[in-house]
């Protein structure tokens, strides 16, 4: 099974049986590349995809975005959140949609609650620790998508995921290490290859690829990868964690220490996280 990576690359190259990025996102990307595009034009593209419009409004109304007023229309969401934020959210929501069919494996509610938690925590950490050069909407998107490889494994390679879970349990190892032992790759690499094939921004692809190993990220994106890594560990200390990722609160505190954020109020962040993730997940 160790050559699963080669097999996956092959499947990706052929484009067989794997989800594709919805047309509405390609249209949105093209429209937003035009610097003179109007909010009305963007809203009309999003409104042609009602599930996406509904999810966008739900997110805009969640505590994670705290718009200060009820957002009932896509046009208003665009005005309040801005084009860049809306583009990032729509891409993330489209990815959610591409994996919307359910199996009994991963519990999707907790999966997206975890993803929303990591997204929120990464953005708040960046704000509080002064990482002003990293676009916050990119971090949020990276957080929402960091474990997309798990969804891909769950829905397209369930036996491999189940075998990896068994090894993780038997060896008391994190899932990604068990995947590496068994498959010669892990859900971070698999997810990043899929997003790369969809031409998502390199920053996002790096955040997904390096969320277990930020030291290996390209220098340009390393800080963002550390923030996702830290956010993930913080989320491991409370409800929106994926038990299979085996993260602990003690590690959350130690990683913040490593990032010289020892004074950071972990408890306040954990409380905010609880509220934010409850309201926006599953997105
Ligand atoms: Fe995760
Ligand atoms: Fe992960």
Explain what you see:
There is one protein chain. This protein has helices at residues 4-14, 23-32, 39-47, 50-60, 74-81, 83-98, 108-129, 136-145, 148-156, 158-171, 175-183, 187-197, 202-209, 222-235, 249-258, 266-280. The chain has 283 residues and is mainly alpha-helical. The chain folds into two domains: 1-18 and 102-283, Orthogonal Bundle (Hypothetical protein af1432); 20-98, no CATH class. The structure holds fe (ii) ion (2 copies).
Annotated CATH architecture of the largest domain = Orthogonal Bundle
Count of DSSP helices? 16
Total beta strands: 0
Radius of gyration: 18 Å
Give the CATH topology of the largest domain.
Hypothetical protein af1432
Brief summary:
With 283 residues, the chain is mainly α. Helices cover 66% and strands 0% of the residues.
Write the layout of secondary structure elements.
Layout: H1 4-14, H2 23-32, H3 39-47, H4 50-60, H5 74-81, H6 83-98, H7 108-129, H8 136-145, H9 148-156, H10 158-171, H11 175-183, H12 187-197, H13 202-209, H14 222-235, H15 249-258, H16 266-280
């Amino acid at each position: 099974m160790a050559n699963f990576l080669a097999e996956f690359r092959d499947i990706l190259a052929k484009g067989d049986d794997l989800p594709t990025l919805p047309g509405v996102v390609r249209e949105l990307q093209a429209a937003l590349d035009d610097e003179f595009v109007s909010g009305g034009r963007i809203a009309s593209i999003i409104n042609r995809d009602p599930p996406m419009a509904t999810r966008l409004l739900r997110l805009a109304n969640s505590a994670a975005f705290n718009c200060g007023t009820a957002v009932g229309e896509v046009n208003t969401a665009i005005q309040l959140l801005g084009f860049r934020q809306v583009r990032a959210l729509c891409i993330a929501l489209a990815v959610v949609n591409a994996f919307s069919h359910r199996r009994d494996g991963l519990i999707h509610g907790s999966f997206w609650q975890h993803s929303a938690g990591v997204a929120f925590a990464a953005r708040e950490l960046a704000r509080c620790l002064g990482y002003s050069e990293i676009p916050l909407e990119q971090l949020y998107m990276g957080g929402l998508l960091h474990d997309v490889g798990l969804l891909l494994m769950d829905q397209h390679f369930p036996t491999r995921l189940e075998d990896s879970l068994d090894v993780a349990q038997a060896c008391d190892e994190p899932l990604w290490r068990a995947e590496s032992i068994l498959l010669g790759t892990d859900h971070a690499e698999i997810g990043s290859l899929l997003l790369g094939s969809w031409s998502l921004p390199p920053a996002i692809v790096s955040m997904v690829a390096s969320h277990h190993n930020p030291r290996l990220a390209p220098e340009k994106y390393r800080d963002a990868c550390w923030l996702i890594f830290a956010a993930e560990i913080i989320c491991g200390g409370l409800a929106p964690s994926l038990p299979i990722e085996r993260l602990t609160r003690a590690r959350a505190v130690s990683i913040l220490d490593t990032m010289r954020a020892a004074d950071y109020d972990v408890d306040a962040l954990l409380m905010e996280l609880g509220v934010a993730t409850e309201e926006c997940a599953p997105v």
